[in-house]
Structure formats: C-alpha cells, structure tokens
Design brief:
Elements (H helix, E strand, L loop, with lengths): L6 H4 L6 H27 L2 H11 E5 L7 E2 L5 E13 L1 H6 L6 H10 L4 H7 L8 E7 L1 H10 L4 E10 L7 H4 L11 H5 L1 H5 L4 E6 L5 E8 L7 E2 L4 H17 L4 E8 L5 E7 L18 H4 L9 H11 L7 E3 L4 E4 L2 E4 L6 E3 H6 L3 H9 L3 H10 L26 H8 L8 H12 L3 E2 L14 E2 L3 H11 L20 E11 L2 E14 L6 E8 L8 H4 L1 H14 L22
Parallel strand pairs: 2-8
Antiparallel strand pairs: 1-6, 2-3, 3-4, 3-5, 6-7, 9-10, 9-19, 11-14, 12-13, 15-16, 17-18, 18-19
C-alpha cells in the first residue's frame, strides 16, 4: 500500500520578513567592515601607522661633546666634562610605592644639598610623567643615587662646560647655559661650530625590546675645536698686573689688550672686574661686560702721534722742526688751550714727551680739516676692528662739515671722539706695522689677513721713533720703560664727560709698542676712575704696560734692542771668581 505524502509540508513557502531583515543587516555589516578596512588601509593609513610606530619605533641619538676651546699653544680654556642629571617619573614613583620610602629620599636629599620635602614636592603629582630632580651632578653622586634604587628615579648622562682659566679668560670665552648652548662671548659667536649635530638611529623593536628592523641612520657631524689667538701665559700675566693696579689705585675698572703687530692676532684681552664662569652664584650683569670692546672713552693724548704723523705727511713740518708753545697756553675761538707749564720751543719729540696740548693744537690748526679727519678714520676710530666678537662698540667719531677752531684743537688731543681699548691697541699696532692696518683676529691664523696701507711706512717709523721720547727720563711715560728694550708709546689722561660738561673722574691711559726698533706687540692699558691724586696715565697705566711688556718679551723670546741700558737685568749664576 503506497504511503501518502503530506503535500503541505513539501510545498515551498515564501521567506519570512525577519529573515530577510537579518540577512540585510549581515550584508551591511560585512560591507561596512570592508569599507572601513579599505578606508584605513588605502585612503587614510597614516593614523594607524603613527599609532603603531609609537609602540614599536624608537630613536636613539649618539652623544657628542661640545668642542673644546684652546689657546694658541693648545692650553685648554673651555672643555666639556661628563655629568649626570637626576630625573623622575612621578606616576611610576607612586605606582611602585617609591613615594612612601622616606629613608631613601632623605639619603638622596643629603647628597644633593636639599631637603626631602623639596624633592617629594616635585613628584607629588602622579599625573606627570617626567620631572628634573637635579641637574649637573658628578659621577660619584650619580653612582650613589643609582645604588639607592628608588622606583621611578633615573639618571641621564649629560655634559657640563668647565673653564680651567676661570675669571682670567671669562670675558673672551663667555659661558653656556645648562643645556650647553652659548650665551656670551665666543661660546655664543661660534655656538654652531662648537655644537655639531648628533647622529640618529630609527629602529623598530618588538614587545620584548628586541631589535626588529633598522629604519634609518644618520651619521654625526662632530663639533670643531676653536684655537684662539690668545696666549694664556700673556693673558694670565696681563690679568694679574691689571688686577693689582685696579686694586692699588682703587679704580672702578680697567682693561688691557695685547696685539701681535705683525699678524693682527690678539694675544691677550683682560678686564677687571671679572667673574668666575664655573661658579655663577651672586654674578652681577656688570661683571660680564667685556669692557675692552664695549666701553668707550675719550682717548686724550694717546692720539697725539696721529697729529704728528699728519703734519709730517702733509709736509707742514719736518722731524727737526721747532714749535713755539709759549707762554704755555693759547686762545682758540675765545676758549683756552693750555699745557701743564710753559715748555717754550719744542721739537716734535718734545711735544710728545711733554704731551703739549698747545703744540698739537698748532699743528692741527695748520692742517686741512679733511686731512685731520681722514687720519682718525684711517686709524680705525668709528669703525669695527674685524675681530667678530659680541657687543663690540665702534666708539664715536663724528663726520661733520663744520668744526670750530676750538673743536679742532680739542680733537688734536683726544677730546670730541670716543674709542675702545681694542681700537686704541689697533691704532698703535698699525703704527708699529709701518702704517699697515690689519684686521684683528681672536682666532689663531696661519697667515695674516690682508691689511690696508693707511699711513706712509717711512713716516710711521719716524713717529714710532719720536714716541720713544715719551719714555725718556723727562717724558710723561718714563714708568713704561722696560729694561733692555726700547719702548715707544704715549700717555693719556682724560676727564670723564657728565651731563653738562666734565666731572671730577678721570681715565688713565698708556699705549705703545715694543721693541721700538722692530715692533712685535702693541699694548693698550686703560684704568677707569682711579681714586686719589694719582690718576694720570703715566702714573696708573704706564707701570702696568711696563710689567706686561717685560714678561711678554721673555715669553715670546724677543731679543733685546737696548743692551746699553743700565737697567738691564740678566739671569745667571753668581759666585766667586
């Protein structure tokens, strides 16, 4: 008997609506996932790459020390020494219980010369991830802190700038900040040269810190070292003698510049007061000023050799000419120009030796005004010296069409213009170099930079010869003499200008070259506002010149050119014959 099938069960029925809805939702879900994947991987993949790189890519930098600064003989003037910095991750400190371990914080505070409360205050906020606890500590202190094993406290290796010469070279070298960036002096001028560029390595690591892939590597650009023209032996000598003079005369400040006449290199540049760049606590801004290049003053009688040179060059006088200075004063434009006393008739050497204002005024008034102004411009007044140092002043030298006769007279003995100690030293270096004005250099150079012949070579030599009278027994600069050497120079004493005229403070000056027969160095000394009755350049500045010049000749091994002098001191072995 055949089985009768249930036709109702076998007959197909239409799909339910909810099944269709579910199918559509599933399809839309797959489509959205595909669209999202396509958007992330094709249209905008950078975000996920960035997030992935944050978790796997690291950058490591090579450590490079800042370049050293040395003097011309290789003596180190600025070096970088390794130090450490203590840092902390406040979140880790709190999470791992380091915040409550007061004994270890007390131990760390003791070696850092602080209190545990000050240290804990820096890490009290657990939301922060990085704070400095102390910077620039010695390796010994760093090792002690490392042994304390405070959770969340780490050490970072850095470098600190150290200046072996201290205050002796502070104004020339300058300083850096805590991040080893130049702030002042040559540290700032040559910051890019001294810094260099550290190399980098970008690499990918896995979750266990293992190297997976080196992505990029750049080589380091090593910093360069600076070799200065400074001779540290002369620098230390000049600073010692200047400091003694400033203290003895109770002056407010002083400067000395020593220049190699043949090359234009600065062998010494010192100032007082100075500061210790290794310990800046209590440092005052005025102590950081490099007065040799920033402070200007009226040069006074130190410019009189220029007037003599101009008169000789114009043919107004000869080296044997006589100039009447009687009766020791003269009226110019209703004003009075006078000497210390009536010197009567003087030759050119006598005008310099006695520093006669009347004599130089007569010579200047006989010259064309343009010729006189050109002399001062050619000497470098009112222009930079080419030394390339921060804060250099060009002084003040006016170029006017109209000058009264009295202004011309005062200009001839150093009033009505201003100069710096460096410019004054450059002027005498130019005279000592036969009228060839060389740009000055604070860096050691192999060959002298091209100069400019601004004065006649022959007349410049004659003026140097005339200036030797200044250091004779009857000259104003007799205290500048150096045993065994001929010295050519000039004293200067100027009153300091104040509002409405001139005050009661003075500047004492002496500048010159040695040895006069074949000048090797030019030295300019400035003593600012000496106290008491001794304020003349021949009294306060000339002895400083003498002491520096004598030792400099020995350091540079320059042969004496005045062996007939009675004051020559000879080192030798004494004994019975």
């Amino acid at each position: 008997m055949a089985v009768k099938r249930n036709e109702k069960i076998l007959r197909p029925e239409p799909l339910p609506g909810r099944f269709m809805f579910l199918l559509v939702c599933i399809c839309l879900g797959f489509v959205s996932l595909i669209a999202r994947a396509a958007y992330i991987q094709v249209i905008e993949p950078d975000r996920l790459r960035y997030e992935g790189d944050l978790r796997s890519v690291r950058v490591a930098q090579d450590r490079i020390q800042r370049g050293n600064i040395t003097d011309r003989n290789g003596v180190e003037l600025a070096v970088s020494v390794p130090v450490h910095t203590v840092w902390a991750d406040p979140k880790v400190v709190h999470d791992r219980g380091g915040y409550t371990d007061t004994r270890r914080w007390q131990a760390m505070a003791d070696v850092l010369n602080t209190t545990p409360e000050q240290l804990l205050r820096k890490v009290e906020n657990p939301e922060r991830r990085f704070v400095y606890l102390e910077r620039m500590i010695t390796p010994a202190v760093a090792n002690y802190i490392r042994d304390l094993r405070i959770p969340g406290v780490g050490l970072k290796e850095e470098s600190r700038r150290f200046y072996p010469a201290g205050e002796i070279t502070a104004h020339v070298i300058g300083i850096t900040n805590i991040d080893a960036e130049g702030l002042d002096g040559l540290e700032a001028v040559y910051n890019n040269v001294l810094t260099g560029t550290p190399g980098q390595r970008r690499y990918r690591k896995d979750g266990q810190g293992r190297l997976v892939e080196l992505l990029e590597a750049t080589d380091s650009e090593l910093p360069q070292n600076l070799t200065l023209s400074i001779d540290q032996r002369i620098q230390a000598l000049a600073y010692r003698e200047l400091t003694k003079a400033v203290r003895f005369h109770q002056a407010t400040s002083g400067s000395v510049v020593v220049i190699d006449v043949q090359t234009g290199e600065v062998l010494a540049m010192v100032n007082n007061p100075s500061y210790n760049p290794n310990n800046r606590s209590g440092l005052q801004p005025h102590q950081m000023r490099n007065r040799a290049i920033t402070d200007s003053f009226e040069p006074g009688s130190t410019v009189k050799p220029l007037v003599i040179l101009g008169a000789l060059a114009n043919g107004d006088v000869t080296i044997d000419s006589k100039i009447s200075t009687s009766p020791g004063w003269m009226r110019v434009g209703g004003r009075r120009v006078q000497d210390a006393r009536n010197y009567g008739e003087l030759d050119l050497a006598g005008i310099l030796a006695h520093s006669s204002n009347v004599g130089t005024s007569r010579l200047a008034l006989d010259m064309e005004l343009e010729d006189l102004l050109d002399l001062y411009s050619s000497a470098g007044f009112g222009s930079d010296t080419g030394i390339n140092m921060l804060g250099e002043s060009m002084g003040m030298f006016q170029h006017r069409n109209r000058w009264s006769n009295f202004e011309v007279a005062t200009l001839s003995y150093g009033y009505g213009l201003s100069t710096t100690t460096l410019q004054l030293a450059q002027m005498y270096a130019t005279l000592g170099n036969g009228g060839n004005r060389l740009p000055l250099s604070i860096l050691k150079i192999d060959e002298p930079l091209p100069g400019r012949q601004v004065f006649s070579r022959e007349i410049s030599r004659q003026v140097v010869q005339l200036m030797e009278a200044v250091t004779a027994d009857s000259g104003t600069g007799s205290r500048a003499r150096v045993p065994g050497y001929r010295v050519a120079g000039k004293t200067g004493t100027t009153r300091k200008a104040v509002a409405g005229g001139y005050g009661d403070e003075y500047v004492g000056l002496f500048a010159g070259v040695i040895p006069a027969s074949r000048p090797r160095v030019a030295i300019a000394v400035m003593i600012n506002e000496p106290a008491g009755d001794s304020y003349h350049g021949g009294t306060v500045a000339a002895p400083v010149f003498s002491a520096i010049a004598e030792e400099t000749m020995r350091i540079l091994n320059v042969a004496p050119d005045n062996l007939n002098g009675r004051e020559l001191r000879v080192a030798g072995f004494g004994g019975r014959p």
